[in-house]
Design a protein that fits this description.
It contains four helices and no strands. It has about 170 residues and is mainly alpha-helical. It starts with a helix and ends in a 6-residue tail after the last helix.
Length: about 170
């Protein structure tokens, strides 16, 4: 029992090192994707500003302007979706990375503390990404509702012109 207990500790440390290192490797790619997602959020914000400007000019606007703004907002929402899918693919690839890290961890267990810290960083990055995705979804919903109101108002405005309406 006294001889197996240290080996159990070594094996558990190796397993922890493998999992933490896998999360670290995934977090590196996720960090790049988070930056891309941040840029997408900036474009979404700009699209929201464009919608607000379009609402101010509602009397002088046409349905074509509203459609252009709607397309920009939808393109931004699609880019958020693409970033989210990339993050999911990176996380799925973690299994292969973990196998390679297992082999490396057998050669040296001294880096366990470092890997544990990196695991915490990966957790924080993933939490940040999850919060960003929740905000992006909420903003896209708000933006789409505003665009619906704009289109409705534009149709009502066009109906008031001579010869307008269906």
């Amino acid at each position: 029992m006294k001889r197996t207990l240290p080996w159990v500790g070594v094996v558990l440390s190796a397993v922890l090192a493998v999992g933490s290192a896998g999360a670290f490797a995934a977090s590196l790619g996720a960090s790049k994707d988070a930056h891309s997602a941040y840029e997408g959020a900036e474009r979404l914000y700009q699209a929201r500003l464009d919608v607000a400007e379009a609402q101010k000019k509602l009397g002088d606007s046409s349905i074509e302007d509203a459609i252009i703004s709607a397309r920009k907002a939808n393109a931004t929402a699609e880019s958020v979706g693409v970033v989210t899918k990339r993050i999911a693919r990176l996380l799925a690839a973690t299994e292969g990375i973990a196998d390679a890290i297992t082999d490396a961890s057998r050669r040296g267990l001294a880096s366990t503390s470092f890997v544990r810290k990196q695991s915490g960083v990966a957790r924080d990055i993933l939490a940040t990404i999850a919060a960003y995705q929740a905000r992006a979804t909420r903003y896209a919903s708000i933006n789409n509702k505003a665009l619906g109101r704009i289109l409705k108002a534009l149709r009502e405005t066009n109906d008031q012109f001579p010869g307008g309406g269906p």
